[in-house]
DNA sequence: ACAAAAGTGTTGTCGATACACCCATGG
DNA sequence: CCATGGGTGTATCGACAACACTTTTGT
């Protein structure tokens, strides 16, 4: 195994976590104190990233980063873009940071995103913190843009792939599912029409269980069956074309 | 300007050209003669590629490659994937080739594709040749897979973006447009329904000109107006399968 | 019994599909 | 005049949008 690192290429990971308020992003605090601990020269946030490891695939490198933060084995990594503009890291702050860390100037990065329910991640490291996608803090490098691109890609994929279920707990209610769609796509959906559509899908299977939320009528729970999905979409394809 | 090259990262360009028979790919002959010119050790085909130039963006690097082959200024480059599996170039042949060229082993490549009418490209260099996507020759490296991925991406984009018009001549007939969709998506479409749909689109504007093809009824010509498209479109797809 | 969220049906419209013949031209 | 590809209309069906009230539970 060759654990050397490519010093001019990195991998970045946008980590999405969904909760009942919408999408969140997991960010790492980037802080640099030069003179006085109370007045850091740099104090902003960045997405998780790291150098490419020579003997691993890009995806494996990304998974390592993901695991080091979340403790979880990744299974739903999506590569969405590679950034290579040589002047993309050119702010004073970013250059200062790079020098202070003894890093080479990594202008190229392959960007991935991960999707899971926010609650499934237990943060061990207090440098990391969740932020609602709608109210992100001051971001370093060009990470604002990267997060945006990731969100756009997610919006598209969600219309066409079952990625939404990676963001949901295993058992979920239809209203939770609707909320997930609404907050990711930034639209509002009609509850009755939504239910009709969803209940038509064989791969969304009802359980004989209810979720007793706060103190209201309990709601029925469902699970997503990937087996059924794979079979159904195949046959759909055959019939349609 | 820093014209040095990154010796471990390259850019590859899948060049699509559409003609009336379908999609074609522009490939470069890779030939290596060790002992006897009549019996090359390597004789297969690869897509265009080259090292990343440090002072340029990835896209600019790709455009340079594109221009060096076609003489055209690129305007429709699409980045679709980055490959970084360290063992993706591991066949005897590929390793031999890399040594023979004095190259470093470039395991990472950012892949782009370009789309234009096949006839708009005049080949100056006889190392390059068009091949129908449906009958590709023996391909080097993992370029078979890269071409496949590019095609899949193109299929998706075509449903949602006006990329199809990059593949068409400026003036085109509706039947040509239909053929383009059919051959890219690998489906058949009903001619009457297709016309109805297309004629509803404000951004496909009829000309008072006809195309006198071989020797039959002349057909009406249309152009695509990007201005109108940009204004009209939010979610107005041409095709829904 | 009331507050709060879960759950349920009908109707109208629009777009998609299926389908077969006439038209204009060049040779 | 005929061969060839260009061009056209209608009827049916299904998907989606709009829309408001009843049900179940916990407190």
UniProtKB/TrEMBL annotation, chains A, B:
Keyword presence, Aminoacyl-tRNA synthetase: no
Gene3D superfamilies with a match to the protein in the record: Nucleoside Triphosphate Pyrophosphohydrolase, Winged helix-like DNA-binding domain superfamily/Winged helix DNA-binding domain
GO molecular function, a single term: hydrolase activity
SUPFAM superfamilies membership: Nudix (SSF55811), Winged helix' DNA-binding domain (SSF46785)
Protein's organism: Mariniflexile gromovii
Keyword Transmembrane helix found: no
InterPro entries listed in its UniProt record: NUDIX_hydrolase-like_dom_sf, WH-like_DNA-bd_sf, WH_DNA-bd_sf, WHD_NrtR
Chain ranges of the NrtR DNA-binding winged helix domain: 165-224
Matching Pfam families: WHD_NrtR
Domain of life of the native organism: Bacteria
Alphabetically ordered keywords of this record: Hydrolase
Protein's recorded name: NUDIX hydrolase
């Amino acid at each position: 195994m060759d654990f050397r690192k490519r010093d001019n290429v990195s991998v970045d990971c946008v980590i999405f976590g969904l909760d009942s308020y919408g999408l969140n992003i997991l960010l790492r605090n980037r802080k640099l104190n030069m003179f006085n601990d109370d007045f850091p020269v740099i104090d902003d946030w960045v997405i998780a990233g790291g150098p490419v490891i020579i003997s691993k695939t890009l995806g494996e490198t990304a998974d390592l980063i993901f695991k080091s933060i979340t403790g979880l084995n990744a299974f739903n990594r999506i590569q969405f873009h590679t950034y290579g503009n040589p002047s993309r890291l050119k702010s004073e702050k970013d250059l200062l940071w790079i020098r202070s860390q003894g890093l080479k100037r990594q202008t190229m990065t392959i960007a991935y995103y991960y999707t899971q329910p926010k609650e499934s991640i237990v943060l061990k490291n207090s440098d990391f913190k969740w932020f609602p996608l709608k109210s992100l803090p001051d971001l370093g490098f060009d990470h604002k843009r990267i997060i945006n691109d990731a969100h756009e890609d997610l919006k598209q994929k969600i219309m066409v792939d079952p990625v939404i279920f990676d963001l949901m707990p295993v058992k979920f209610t239809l209203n939770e599912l609707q909320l997930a769609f609404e907050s990711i796509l930034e639209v509002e959906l009609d509850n009755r029409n939504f239910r009709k559509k969803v209940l038509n899908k064989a791969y969304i299977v009802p359980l004989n269980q209810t979720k007793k939320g706060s103190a209201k009528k309990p709601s029925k729970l469902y699970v997503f069956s990937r087996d059924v999905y794979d079979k159904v979409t195949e046959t759909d394809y055959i019939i349609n074309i």
